[in-house]
Amino acid sequence: MVLLTPRIHFYEIDDQSWFPQYFREKVQAGLTLLWTFRVPLIQSATPAVLVASTLQEVLGNRMSEFTYVDFCAGAGGPTPFIEQDLNLRLRKSLENADLRNGINGRNHGDEERHAANGVDFVLTDIAPHLEAWEEAAKKSDNMHFISTPVDAANAPPDLLRSLPAGERGGKVFRLFNLAFHHFDDPLAERILHNSIATSDGFGIFELQARTFSSLLTVSLIWPLLLLITPFYFWRSPGHLFFTYVIPIIPFVLVFDGYVSSLRTRSTQEILALMGKKGDVKGWEFGSGSECHTYPTGEMTWFIGLRKS
Fold first, then answer.
1. Structure pTM?
2. Contact by Cβ (8 Å): 26, 239
């Protein structure tokens, strides 16, 4: 991967306090659609499914050990869809193991029963979106949220204590879905340090990078939205108006997409930040990329795990 520039922490429109909440909600809805929509022929899976498949591949048998906590969840984003796909994969894996071993009717141990019930996901944010989170939680017994503000740089070790006893799950695995590039270096250092100190794993997933191919992929968002918006937002006259007549929604998504690309860190830059803060002994790290939109769109990932 050839990086075009050093990391530039420019400003995204959607992050600004002056940007109206009405437009922010429309932009976030469009971003969620981009996470969960699959373009035939050029996308083998949605980006949300790619996150779930990457977690399954990297975590392997440890997948059922964790409760997955989305920091900076916003209105929910792709996390409810990641939860659905990851738990589907987990249940299929357990069923296939039973079939291979010829033990379909046997009693499962605690760990296997936990896997059969699915792993839990928890939505958190410094500014909770309770209405959206409540709707997401109604759709799955494995989706929960913390109603009070959670600072990703200062999250307590007992973060899940506020959940009902039966929903506290196991070890904490932090998720940063299209979020880590929002933090400047000092804040990113503190978040990594807190993750190492208070969790057992974390994953950073980005749909862009500081590459020419990423900028090209971001440019394609505008025509894609023009094609698919009527099918998903036909009940929202405001969304249609601000897509086609005064195209604020596609403009912000593309502009912020360019800025996000220039903000996104490489693996070496993340490791350098961790080297400045905290003790990483007892941890192992991995990184990689997956094609989310052929031939130019790449999802990059960085995963840290406390050694078992």
1. 0.92
2. yes
